[in-house]
């Protein structure tokens, strides 16, 4: 039995490595094409902007990844992000709190909003699709009512400087730092922690995980709280980049949040995850958008391109799941080590 489990885990790892390698090659090829045909793609300014946007997109993708892993969806990532960001902006602009207090408070608020999503699903038994879709409208509606649709533009200089000051080189933004920290923490979560293994177990086979001692409801609540925290982080990144808290923030996040983990190799049905793949996918997606701009392609084609990439990623994911021995096995112990973690 142990040899079979080891073989399955090696197959999952090999698949992730292969997927990530393909994404890296595609990213490099796209950079070559855009540099050759576009205007200023590899300029310091464009690479700096690319690093900002890729960092945000990565956090948006992570906010979806942590619930996809357990076999759920969070269509309220944008709603959570805008609510947490507007609340943080209000704390700094109107309540007069310093960023050192307001920013962590905003992150906690985002986690609480995510926790509410998980609590409603657990309490009602409704699917995450319905719950998060409805709550997204509620979160956004409350923000628009309380803000009157007006942006909060009084953001301390220290907040906006963090995003707009270069890191080591003029081609990198400081936003890369929290993005990489989040990636490292999630890698450790799914590869070195019992909670991460339990999340994978729930996504692979919820009934079997429950029978083996995993507290499914607690895992669901924790995953949605983590999703809210990551969505709030992405929102605060955008607030830093544009030097304002915008009530329109979060529009279009659902598409990006799905593209990043699925394209990166995380299983849409749950039970398998690739943090490294998601990181590369975020860079790839933003490279496409940035490259289209350098080619003077109208902005509305960017969302079209993301939709095509998402469709291709879902089709590839489904094809791979149909292959023998690709579906995760039921957990035999509470630590869930038999499940597919990332590399």
Structure description:
With about 350 residues, this protein is mainly α. It has a single domain (about 15-320), classed as ABC transporter involved in vitamin B12 uptake, BtuC. The protein contains 13 helices and 2 strands; from the N terminus they run ααααααββααααααα. It has a two-stranded antiparallel ribbon with strand order 1-2. β1 and β2 (about 170-175) form a beta hairpin. The chain is globular, with a radius of gyration of 20 Å.
Largest sheet: 2 strands, antiparallel
Note poorly predicted spans: 1-11, 325-338
Predict the CATH topology.
Answer: ABC transporter involved in vitamin B12 uptake, BtuC
Mean pLDDT: 86
- The N- and C-terminal alpha carbons lie at a distance of 23 Å
Q: Number of helical segments?
A: 13
Core attributes:
mainly alpha, 2% strand, 72% helix, 13 helices, two-stranded antiparallel sheet, 343 residues
């Amino acid at each position: 039995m142990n040899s079979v489990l080891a073989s399955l885990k090696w197959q999952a790892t090999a698949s992730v490595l292969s997927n990530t390698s393909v994404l890296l090659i595609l990213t490099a090829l796209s950079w070559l094409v855009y540099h050759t045909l576009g205007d200023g793609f590899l300029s310091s300014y464009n690479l700096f902007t690319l690093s900002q946007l890729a960092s945000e997109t990565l956090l948006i993708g992570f906010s979806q990844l942590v619930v996809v892993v357990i076999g759920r969806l969070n269509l309220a990532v944008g709603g959570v992000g805008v609510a947490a960001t507007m609340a943080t902006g209000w704390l700094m602009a109107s309540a007069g709190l310093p960023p050192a207090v307001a920013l962590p408070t905003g992150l906690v608020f985002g986690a609480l909003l995510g926790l509410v999503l998980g609590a409603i699903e657990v309490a009602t038994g409704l699917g995450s699709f319905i719950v998060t879709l409805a709550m997204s409208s509620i979160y956004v509606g409350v923000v628009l009512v309380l803000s009157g649709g007006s942006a909060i533009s009084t953001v301390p200089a220290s907040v906006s400087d963090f995003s707009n000051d270069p890191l080591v080189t003029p081609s990198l933004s400081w936003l890369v730092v929290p993005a990489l920290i989040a990636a490292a923490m999630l890698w450790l979560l799914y590869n070195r922690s019992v909670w991460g293994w339990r999340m994978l177990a729930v996504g692979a086979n919820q009934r079997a995980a429950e029978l083996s001692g995993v507290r499914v409801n607690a895992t669901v609540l924790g995953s949605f709280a983590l999703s809210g925290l990551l969505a709030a982080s992405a929102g605060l990144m955008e607030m830093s980049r544009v030097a304002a808290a915008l009530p329109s923030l979060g529009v279009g996040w659902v598409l990006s949040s799905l593209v990043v983990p699925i394209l990166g190799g995380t299983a849409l049905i749950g039970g398998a995850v690739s943090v490294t793949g998601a990181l590369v996918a975020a860079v790839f997606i933003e490279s496409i958008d940035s490259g289209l701009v350098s080619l003077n392609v109208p902005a509305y084609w960017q969302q079209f391109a993301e939709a095509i990439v998402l469709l291709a990623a879902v089709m590839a994911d489904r094809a791979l799941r149909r292959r023998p021995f690709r579906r995760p096995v039921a957990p035999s112990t509470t630590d869930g080590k038999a499940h597919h973690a990332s590399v």
